[in-house]
Request: fold
Amino acid sequence: MANDIEMLKRQLGDYRRLFDDAEVAITIINQDGHFIDCNKAYYSLMGYTDKPVLNHFHPSDISPEIQPDGRSSHEKANKMIQLALINGRNSFEWMHQKLDGYEFLSHVTLDVISFNDQDVVRATIHDISEQRMLDRIVKERTKELYVKNQELEYLAKTDPLTGLYNRIRLDEILNQELHRFKRYQHTFGGILIDLDDFKLINDTFGHQIGDQVLIEVSQVFKQHCREVDTVGRWGGEEFLIITPETDLNGVRVIAENLRRSIESHSFVQAADITASFGIAIFRKDDCINKFLTRIDNALYEAKDNGRNLVSSAK
Reply:
């Protein structure tokens, strides 16, 4: 009997050392929700030096009144303990409050163990406040990076002067329309526009006025084109409009409307402005280069025939 008692004492001593020397914070809680024992790591985590001070505390006594999920600490603690007693184990997040008032988020795991022939709850607490802070920083940086990437993508595909798509984006749209044409036989058209005598505008009024004319022309195009149309600056004073699901008559109607809108627009500090238009629809024997060449030839025909005209490709 004496040997059995001595062995039990040694086992209890070993358990005590393991309990106190554990690096993770641990506390033992009875079924009423009050602390029975806490290890050194728990006292250290909570900022206490006098070990007995936490005995008989309830978890809500060392926590803010309300948890982040909106529940009162007292109500939530009792609920979590009861769930652990029913299921044998329970895990959740918990906001603690240290002796100095500092609050930190933790991950708590409750599991049921036997203590003095009674079922009690062992709580293992991990401070995750730093991890959550890092997670928040990573999330914020990821969002910032996404925004920056969106801005870079916009800048890479946008003409900085007019705000229209640039040639890179126009090439992408043309290839998308080519793919739709090959797969679904959905036709599309193109309108190539060149401002008449634009060099004279620059020479007469200066390049700043010339730039303002390009900006105003771009605004006219955006105001009078359909939402499905793609409007872009092809280069210099040339613009390209891609018109999906449109036959030649439809393309001509759009171009004539734009031609009249430019002709009637009052440009700031500049003389009357007109533009010449070359139009075409994509044909089965076209490739992108051939399609653009046909539109370009139509544009030159409009120029040769007196400007301020819409000319259809052959």
